[in-house]
Amino acid sequence: MSLIVPVILSGGSGTRLWPMSTPERPKQMLALTAEQTMLQLTAARAVGERFDAPIVVANARHTELIEDQLAAIGVRPQALILEPVGRNTAPAIALAALAAPDPSAPLLVMPSDHVIGDVAAFQQAIEAALPLVEDGWLVTFGITPDAPETGYGYIKVGAPIASGVHRVDRFVEKPPRDVAEAMLASGDHAWNGGIFLFRADAFLDALAQHEPTMLDAVRRSLAQGDRSGSRLHPAAAAFAEAPSESIDYAVMEKADRVAVVPVAMGWNDVGSWDALHAISQADDAGNAFGGEVIAVDTANCLARSDGARIAMVGVSDLIVVASGNDILILPRGRSQEVKKLLEAMKG
Fold first, then answer.
1. Cα dist. 255→87, 97, 209 in Å?
2. Domain containing 333: what range?
3. Can you tell me whether residue 172 is helix, strand or coil?
4. How far apart are alpha carbons 274 and 212 in whole angstroms?
5. Closest CA to 335 of 287, 302, 310, 309
6. Beta strands in 124-275 (DSSP E)
7. Looking at 222, 243, 268, which one is the last position of a domain?
8. Does one domain contain both 130 and 248?
């Protein structure tokens, strides 16, 4: 079987972790959970004798950042595909599938900004999926849920097909709280973590069947684009004609042979400052600090700075983030409202 080609999706704009994460330097380019950046950690999960060099699909404005960060860990992408405009995950993955030199190669599709604490469990899940992938199945990895999260999509895990691999019964949109609690209690649902494994040609065949207009636009964008070394620049006009759809809507919810590997691997999408606090090393008072922070009589706070010194006295359950000229202060539990704040700042 061909080497697995990691496909790293790095098109995110990074608004939810403002002010550290910005469109110029989104969260995957930051060292939020370790000494390495989230992009570097993602690439490092898929290195070794089973893996080929990665294909990275990214926003064109991050070209040098991505190349520098990957070079720093000894990873040289076989292709860096620079999207002229964001069109969601299905067209981005189509770009990678068309650029893969071997159509039968398995593509391991990974967002660049997720945390996986147990990489060994992830590797075992990949091994479990490979026989079905070789046979043309589209496989997703279902994250074992530990809370009734309403911010994630879910997968209903169906009948077993092979050891550790099940048919997908259905995909469930982000549910209200009572539905999420019922799915958690049922024990037969997993979070949809947005990580996939399938042959390039199997994905393209499914796209041709279910979203032919998208596939045509992406094909033309590559044919009309240009290449400079490992950098691919799809043609902007053609790529903009691709419908902006997620892979779930475009393919996974419609295709016939879709499987899921349920896996507990310490996954987190670090979608907010609260989420980062939850997975950070905390002191005895529940505080997680980064950068220059001085705290007295302070409990259950997240404070991070990339420059200014933060001083805190007699407070609890706060998130304080200082970056450049911007300072964010809000109560714990409300960090999903950062997007509202950015909208208010616009105008």
1. 21, 17, 9
2. 273-346
3. strand
4. 40
5. 302
6. 138-143, 154-162, 165-172, 189-199, 226-228, 231-233, 258-263, 267-268
7. 268
8. yes
Q: Which residues contact 186 (CB under 8 A, 6 or more apart)?
A: none
> What's the pLDDT band for 346 if we cut at 50, 70, 90?
confident
Token pair of 180 as six digits = 């999420």
Q: pLDDT by residue (tens digit) across 82-123?
A: 999 999 999 999 999 999 999 999 999 999 999 999 999 999
Residues 29-76: tens digit of each pLDDT: 999 999 999 999 999 999 999 999 999 999 999 999 999 999 999 999
Residues 6+ apart with CB under 8 A from 307: 291, 322, 323, 324
Cis link prior to 148 (omega < 30° from 0)? no
- Dig out the tokens for 153 from the structure: 């999509």
User: Is 207 in the same domain as 236?
Assistant: yes
Q: Exposed e or buried b for every residue in 238-263, given b needs 16+ CB within 10 A?
A: bbebbeebbbbbbbbeebebbbbbbb
Question: In terms of domains, do 256 and 156 share one?
Answer: yes
Task: Please compute, for residue 58, the number of CA atoms within 13 A of its CA located in the half-sphere on the CB side.
Answer: 28
Q: Are 206 and 245 in contact (CB under 8 A)?
A: no
Tokens at residue 2, please?
Answer: 């061909």
How far, in Å, are 20, 246, 335 from residue 124 at the CA level? 34, 26, 34
